[in-house]
């Protein structure tokens, strides 16, 4: 805590400016990785909305379930920032995060994250059911222990395996309504799981120097830009037809299928542009309009639009 904040309790001291108060609040919110949380919450919401019986779930319980998913994602993010504070400090993209920049103490961040993790799982259990709470706990544990502490610093497959952590939210949302996990939420899990490598590797091409400086074995660092671009293409080729899986099993209608086909083709176009681009080889930095940057941005649009189309198709168009 800053000296100014400590002076609030001293007689005659000037009150803490509102801007300083808000700055500290923003630092604690930043620990939760709110931008990552947005997509996590959205995919969890879609899993909840399309689950059988969602319409009969009390709105307060539904909102509580989504809040628990958000808090759990934030908890995992806070613990991740605590553990990765050493490498965050040497990466330009993360050096200004609250812990490496000295604005929040590491121990405080860890306690904050653990407390939120326990609270989110407990409330989910009380508000919905054991299945949703167990999957929620598993998602936190997978992100913290499997991805952050085990895979991230040891293998270029960190994103491939660790991507499962970000694929849990639709399963959690579905389980919060039904109390079980069936084929459809597993298909949604698979879509996010296969989407994660091309999404993150496009960013890793852009942030290659940062990862190399921090000693993180992301694929562009260990295998080079050319192999990374090839892997982005391979995973996108698998992802494009996988997006049709809800329609293939009869869960969604032709409107969703049309959107999935269009999005898949657009993603393939972006991945192919990355494959053909060689400006990131021989140590050269990517320009601002590089295909990898465009592919990363589109990957976010792809997943958000695909899941939105599923929800709209299921709720409004499928009899």
From TrEMBL:
Its main location: membrane. GO terms for biological process: heme O biosynthetic process. It comes from the Bacteria. It is found in: Cell membrane. It is a multi-pass membrane protein. One of its GO terms (molecular function) is protoheme IX farnesyltransferase activity. Pfam families: UbiA. Gene3D superfamilies: UbiA prenyltransferase. It catalyses: heme b + (2E,6E)-farnesyl diphosphate + H2O = Fe(II)-heme o + diphosphate. One of its GO terms (cellular component) is plasma membrane. Carbon 2 of the heme B porphyrin ring is defined according to the Fischer nomenclature. Belongs to the UbiA prenyltransferase family. Protoheme IX farnesyltransferase subfamily. This is Protoheme IX farnesyltransferase. The lineage of its organism: Bacteria, Pseudomonadati, Pseudomonadota, Alphaproteobacteria, Acetobacterales.
């Amino acid at each position: 805590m800053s000296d100014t904040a400590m002076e609030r309790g001293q007689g005659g001291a000037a009150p803490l400016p509102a801007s300083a108060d808000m700055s500290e609040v923003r630092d604690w919110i930043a620990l939760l990785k709110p931008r990552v949380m947005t997509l996590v919450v959205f995919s969890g919401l879609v899993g909840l909305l399309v689950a059988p019986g969602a319409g009969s779930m009390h709105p307060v319980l539904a909102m509580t379930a989504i809040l628990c998913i958000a808090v759990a994602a934030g908890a995992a993010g806070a613990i991740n920032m605590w553990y990765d504070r050493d490498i965050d400090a040497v990466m330009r993209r993360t050096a200004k995060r609250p812990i490496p920049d000295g604005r929040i103490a590491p121990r405080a961040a860890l306690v904050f994250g653990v407390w939120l993790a326990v609270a989110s799982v407990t409330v989910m259990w009380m508000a919905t059911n054991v299945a949703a709470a167990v999957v929620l706990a598993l998602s936190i544990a997978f992100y913290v222990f499997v991805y952050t502490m085990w895979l991230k610093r040891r293998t270029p497959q960190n994103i491939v395996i660790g991507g499962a952590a970000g694929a849990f939210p639709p399963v959690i949302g579905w389980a919060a309504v039904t109390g079980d996990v069936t084929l459809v939420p597993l298909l949604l899990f698979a879509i996010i799981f296969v989407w994660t490598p091309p999404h993150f590797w496009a960013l890793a091409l852009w942030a290659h120097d940062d990862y190399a400086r921090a000693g993180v074995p992301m694929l562009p660092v260990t295998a080079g830009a050319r192999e990374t671009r090839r892997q982005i293409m391979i995973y996108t080729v698998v992802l494009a037809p996988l997006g049709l899986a809800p329609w293939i099993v009869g869960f969604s209608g032709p409107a969703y299928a049309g959107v999935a086909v269009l999005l898949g083709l657009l993603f393939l176009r972006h991945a192919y542009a990355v494959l053909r681009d060689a400006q990131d080889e021989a140590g050269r930095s990517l320009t601002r309009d590089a295909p990898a940057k465009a592919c990363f941005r589109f990957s976010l649009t792809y997943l958000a639009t695909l899941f939105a189309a599923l929800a709209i198709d299921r709720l409004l168009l499928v009899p």
